Amino acid sequence: MQSDQKSRQRPTDLKKEQVMHDLLLRRLCQYVDLSSIEMTAIAKLVSGRPRHVAARCRLLQEGDALGSIFYLLNGWICAYKLLEDGRCQNLLFFLPGDLWGFSAPLNSRTAYALRTVKDAIVIDIPRDGFLEVIARHPGLTEAFRWSGLVTDEISRERVLSLGQRTAKERCAHMICEIFWRLRAVGEVDGTSMYFPCTQEEIGNTIGVSTVHANRMLQDLRAEKLICQHQQKLEILDLEGLQRLAYFDSDFLHLRSLDPPPAELRSFGKPLGLGPSRFSESDRADARRTVNA
Amino acid sequence: MQSDQKSRQRPTDLKKEQVMHDLLLRRLCQYVDLSSIEMTAIAKLVSGRPRHVAARCRLLQEGDALGSIFYLLNGWICAYKLLEDGRCQNLLFFLPGDLWGFSAPLNSRTAYALRTVKDAIVIDIPRDGFLEVIARHPGLTEAFRWSGLVTDEISRERVLSLGQRTAKERCAHMICEIFWRLRAVGEVDGTSMYFPCTQEEIGNTIGVSTVHANRMLQDLRAEKLICQHQQKLEILDLEGLQRLAYFDSDFLHLRSLDPPPAELRSFGKPLGLGPSRFSESDRADARRTVNA
DNA sequence: CGCAAGTTTGAATAGCCTCAAATCCGGTGG
DNA sequence: CCACCGGATTTGAGGCTATTCAAACTTGCG
After folding, report:
1. In 10 A of CB B259, how many CB atoms?
2. Residue A279 exposed, middle or buried by CB count within 10 Å (0-12, 13-18, 19+)
3. Could you give the CA distance from residue B254 to residue A107 in angstroms, rounded to a whole number?
4. Gap between the Cα atoms of B127 and A221, Å rounded
5. Domains in chain B and their CATH numbers?
6. Above 50 in pLDDT, residue B121?
7. Cystine design at B193: which of A40, A50, B133, B188 (Cβ 3.0–4.6 Å)?
8. What pLDDT, in 10s, does the model give residues A95-123?
9. Do A145 and B105 touch (CB under 8 A)?
10. Which of the four pLDDT bands, split at 50, 70 and 90, describes residue A19?
11. Which residue, among A1, A5, A55, has the nearest Cα to A270 in the 3D structure?
12. Lowest mean pLDDT, pick from A198-202, A287-291, B31-35
């Protein structure tokens, strides 16, 4: 493993091999009940050597042949498309526990590029072996079918957003979507989450300019719906945020919405933000922003 | 069959049973080479009794359980999503030869509603039987996997459109997309096609108001890129239209771009527009609009 | 002929963009 | 410790794009 010595603040280190597949299992169990045999099979599949990828690194380019499947352990990865004149549209964020590349036909090529948003940890999985194992287990087949469906639903919901929702609604909707997705794999801390997107990235996602994304975020903060500090985002009023965005979590097909078991709450805590850094001062900061 | 007597102008009548699967076969053969056994299997699947559906009829509602798969023989069907306050976003048009409902997991529900745009002819296919047949034939499995991929790609391209393209570009892009899709199944006549969308529908598709959709279409006509008459749309300058829209047909994964065989050119010619109605006067009309 | 649906037009307004500059922040080097 | 640098965020002003509302017009159809 590539862990360095000063690992206290580096949650990207993998403490036990066991945790590597916890995120994925938790995701898949949202969709179907897996047998222990199937769980073991998954655990084996994702037991490869984790690979660190730096922030803002392109993993794949539009038109590339499909390589191996990858399993995202930590960090965010962004799928995006470009227009010839440079305009960039983000399609989808891959979050910890997400798997990429299992549903495309053989011999097809990616229709979009992939780039890390922040430092990420990825495990590469050989495509053939993966597909073969999945095909042997009906539960896994079904689980990944659902997983693919959710990706499609996110895409359709994004079409609805971009076509009909206002910029502020889109902004709120995006935050809700990511919150629920992270929550489903236990990657939130109560109502706050690691949110490493720049405002440019948010703009590219919701289809507005960076400047306007900034103003929409300011509005959401002014309305006490969210508050931000560094790369952490806290949802102050989830109900209000969802009402504003016309957000309904159904499209994510989440089943178990219970808080994750305590022993898993600490895993995957993102990049160097200790628990002490998000309390008093943040609130103060939020208030300051409101009054400005 | 439900054909009435005055059938001269009613292309919705089915002349021979044979043609019913031609569209579908042509679509699938875009993706893979099918064996004659597979072609026969498909022909059998879609040999059910055609059902006429009136214009603007809702076939399915958001949240409905999956019923049978349907095969669209004639007309357009539109998938759309609603916001609670009534805003409506069109996601995708199903065109003649398209099949709906083969890729969702069992027990899932539709995340969008379906409604006919114009009178349509549909064949219902029992889901279980269909999936079983497909699964037995590797070529068909592969073909439908590609077909599903194309749907996804259209969705992603729409995200790109709504997020980054201007209204005029989106309008042009939508026209190009439908032209290529219709052309792939032989449903175009040179550079003109049946285009039964109202401007409201176009607006709901490209994410602008009806009024603005109208103005964008006027622009395209003024620039001599398209010309419209009744429900027929002729592309006067495909190159120009595509350049304007940053359109690249790759995302549709079309393979055989040759003109379809002559004997099939006349089938499925849409609703009551004789060939004589689209010549002189239309050009004059287009010019008039430009000068206004 | 008259109705209903669809298209077109105009004017006022709201939403969003561009450009440009200022500020904030974390990290780096002195 | 401070100065500085670069990336990210914030602010302001002006302009373009798209919306809304309302009315007129066109067209297909009974």
Report:
1. 11
2. exposed
3. 15
4. 48
5. 17-164 (2.60.120.10), 166-255+265-292 (1.10.10.10)
6. yes
7. B188
8. 999 999 999 888 899 999 999 999 999 99
9. yes
10. low
11. A55
12. A287-291
**Local confidence band at B225 (pLDDT 50, 70, 90 cut-offs):** very high
Nearest to B95 by CA among B112, B118, B125: B118
More confident residue, A9 or B234: B234
Cα(A181)–Cα(A188) distance, rounded to whole angstroms?
Answer: 9
Helix and strand totals (H; E) in chain A: 9, 11
Asked whether the beta carbons of A233 and A214 are under 8 A apart, the reply is no
Q: Which two tokens stand for residue B284?
A: 């004059």
Question: Residue A255's pLDDT is what?
Answer: 82
Q: How many residues does chain A have?
A: 292
Q: Which residues touch strand C (CB under 7 A)?
A: A 166-168, 207-209, 211-212, 230, 285; B 198-200, 210-211, 214-215, 217-218, 289, 292
Q: How many helices (H) and strands (E) does chain B have?
A: 10, 11
Neighbouring CB atoms inside 10 A of B40's CB total 12
The enclosing H or E element of A37 equals helix A36-45
Distances (CA, A) of B203 to A164, B74, B77, B213: 10, 23, 16, 5
Closest CA-bearing residue to C1' of D12: A211
CA–CA dist B8, B56 (Å, integer): 24
Give me B93's structure tokens: 């048009």
**Distance between CA atoms of residues B99 and A136, nearest Å:** 28
For the residues of B118-182, what is the DSSP string, one character each? Answer: S-EEEEEE-HHHHHHHHHH-HHHHHHHHHHHHHHHHHHHHHHHHHHHS-HHHHHHHHHHHHHHHH
Give nearest nucleotide to A197 (CA–C1'). D8
For residue B164, which amino acid is it? Q
**Closest chain B CA to residue A92:** B156
Q: Taking the C1' atom of C17, which residue's CA lies nearest?
A: A209
The chain A residue lying nearest B87, using CA atoms, is A164
User: What are the two backbone dihedrals, phi and then psi, of residue B150, each rounded to the nearest 5 degrees?
Assistant: -60, -40
- The 3-class SS string of A116-155 reads ECCCEEEEEECHHHHHHHHHHCHHHHHHHHHHHHHHHHHH
d(CA A137, CA A129): 13
In which order are the strands placed within the sheet that holds A226-229? Answer: A192-194, A232-235, A226-229
